C-alpha cells in the first residue's frame, strides 16, 4: 500500500475540507485520507495523477501537486 502526500491550494473552509475528504475517499483504491488546509496524506493503491484530478474536479478553486 502506498502513501501519497499532496500539497493543496485554494482550500479555505471546513466545508472545503469535508468535500475534498469525501471526494478522495470515493476514488477507487483509496483506503484512508488525512487532510489539512494545505496538505493531504492518502493511503491506498491509487496513483498520484488520479488524486490530483479528483481534487480539481471538486471545485475549480482547488488544486493539488
Shape designation: globular
Beta-strand percentage range: 25-35%
Low-confidence stretches: none
How many extended strands? 4
User: How many whole angstroms does the radius of gyration measure?
Assistant: 10 Å
CATH class: Alpha Beta
Quickly count the domains: 1
Report the total helices.
2
Q: How does CATH name the architecture?
A: 2-Layer Sandwich
Rounded to the nearest angstrom, the distance between the terminal CA atoms is 20 Å
Order of helices and strands: EHEEHE
Descriptive notes:
- It contains two helices and four strands, in the order βαββαβ.
- With 65 residues, the chain is an alpha+beta fold.
- It has a single domain, classed as Alpha-Beta Plaits (2-Layer Sandwich).
- The chain has a four-stranded antiparallel beta sheet, with helices on one face.
- A hairpin with a 3-residue loop joins β2 (30-35) and β3 (39-44).
- The longest helix is centred in the first third of the chain and has 12 residues, at 14-25.
- The two termini are 20 Å apart.
Layout of SSEs?
Layout: E1 2-9, H1 14-25, E2 30-35, E3 39-44, H2 48-58, E4 63-64
Antiparallel strand pairs: 1-3, 1-4, 2-3
Give a short summary of the structure:
With 65 residues, the chain is α+β, with helices and mostly antiparallel strands. Helix content is 35%, strand content 34%.
Spell out the key features of this protein.
single chain, 65 residues, alpha+beta, Alpha-Beta Plaits, four-stranded antiparallel β-sheet, 2 helices, 34% strand
